[in-house]
């Protein structure tokens, strides 16, 4: 991890690292459901990392966040990305980016337990 404070990074940089961290948490979650063929694990993971699922997670956890976390979530959601979403509408994509930015922020701050808590809360509701 970088020694810089997470709030010195742009929302899109936070989303960049958050995307990878989120995928690792998703894969760990899927694996915890029991041993199964890898292609089945891949399909299950793919469903949870889609922008639509991340946008739902955004809305499920939004009310459970601290003021600081909510600011990061909204900064990520409002960030202007050059790339256009391939398999999601723009609103879903922006909400997914907000969630990824929050996860990236928490990761860089070393708040792994908080990431786990937020993701678990969302997965229980999905």
Would you list the SSEs in sequence order as H and E?
HHHHHH
Largest sheet: none
Shape from CA axes?
globular
Q: Mean pLDDT, nearest integer? A: 91
Whole-angstrom Rg: 14 Å
Instruction: For the record, give the distance between the C-alpha atoms at the N and C termini, rounded to a whole number.
Output: 30 Å
**Number of strand segments:** 0
Report the structural category.
mainly alpha
Range of strand content: under 5%
> What's the tally of helices?
6
Low-confidence stretches: none
Share of residues in helices: over 70%
Describe this structure as you would to a colleague:
The chain is mainly alpha-helical. The protein is built from six helices and no strands. The mean pLDDT is 91. Helix 1 (11-32) runs antiparallel to helix 2, helix 3 (51-61) crosses helix 5 and helix 3 (51-61) packs across helix 6. The chain is 71% helix and 0% strand. It is globular, with a radius of gyration of 14 Å. The termini are far apart.
